[in-house]
Amino acid sequence: MTDQHLIHMDNLSQPDILELIDTAQKLRQDPSKVPNLFPRGCGLMFFENSTRTQHSFYLAAARLKMIPLVANLERSSLSKGESVADMLDTWSALGIDVAVIRHQENTFCQQLAQQLKSPIRLINAGNGNISHPTQALLDCLSIHDNKTELDQLKIVLMGDIAHSRVAHSFIQAMALLGNTKLHWVGPAIWQSDDPRINCSQDIDQALSDADVIMCLRIQHERMQNTPFNDNHYLQEWGLTAQRLQRAKADAIVLHPGPINRGIEIASEVADGKQSRIRQQVENGLWMRMALLIKYCSA
Ligand code: NCD
Questions:
Q1: Could you report the per-residue pLDDT of 64-107, keeping only the tens digit for each?
Q2: How many A from CA of 85 to the centre of ligand 1?
Q3: pTM recorded for the entire structure
Q4: Can you spell out the DSSP letters for 184-201?
């Protein structure tokens, strides 16, 4: 039985995740299998900037022949004092089935879910620094495309884990898939106390024999002061071609984007043969189609 909303990774079980990966892979393999969901509607409400997430949800809805509606927040009735919950109930009355929401507060979708009076479904497209389940799902799909036995892989997160909602949801997703010990390397100031993370300040040791490396952007917008100089960060903490050689020869490099070239990742690595960053973006489309199908038909 599917939870009504997708707010955190724990709204999904391991079979749910595997089914979403399977659906996304089948849609990608044979686009003639894409269902026609007209005249269902998908509303997009983004209180924070977005390129990949917002555009892939829009295009996923369009491929499913859903009606995509992008909220122009400054010109909506929110500016007249309407609450977000009342606006979503209005959307529901107009035929919107799923609302995709990004907001800077950690518990925004959770609180919203309690206020809704209509059957509209929420999909969290990034809340504060704790939750971004749809990104975690497309990252799992990208790993599944390249590797077998996900629970056995050495996965290393690099960089600003402290402010990364991507990392938090990814750690939960991998735990649901049976990989309960991930690795992290970065400046001690961002060290995690999550018992599922093996933390280190030694980059060469952390990257040794890695199967998957996920780089994280420095989330300047979520910090008062950034203790690092962007010009030195790559040499001190970033993923360079030389460091990548410590990992397995067939290791893959992920990054949720947007990337800051020459800061958390060297350009030659981002564009190199081990990079799967472009594949992650493409997978965003297929995974979000799988999600819209699931949440529209449940
Ligand atoms: C991420 C986000 O918004 O949390 N981007 C994304 O959705 N692909 C990561 C980031 O902003 O660094």
A1: 999 999 999 888 888 888 999 999 999 999 999 999 999 999 99
A2: 25
A3: 0.97
A4: EES-GGG----TTEEEES
